[in-house]
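Annex B. Sample input.
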Amino acid sequence: MPRPKKCRNVWCTPYITYFKPAGIRVIGLEEVVLTIDEFEAIRLKDLEGLDQEEAAKRMNISQPTFHRLVLSARKKVTDAIVNGKAIKIEGGTFKILRPRRRRLRRGWRGGG
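Annex B, continued. Sample output.
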């Protein structure tokens, strides 16, 4: 029996949680599920530009676990882009470090 997953720290949950290829109807479209902790891992590594050690500390996980999360997330995103699948962001084992800011206008995320 595997041991339970450690709760991962995430900065906030994304406002937009579903992406699909343009021009394709949702009916019959395959989905790839990206967990919130995978989303946070690629946000820290690819968007914020942190090294794996610092990003792992922020998420309260080991560096090897962080590396596995990044690899899994990148594989899912690549699969969705190459094979024309939708990306749904949900689930995972996580704790939110700050609540979402209120939107001031449509599409505004409130900064990082």
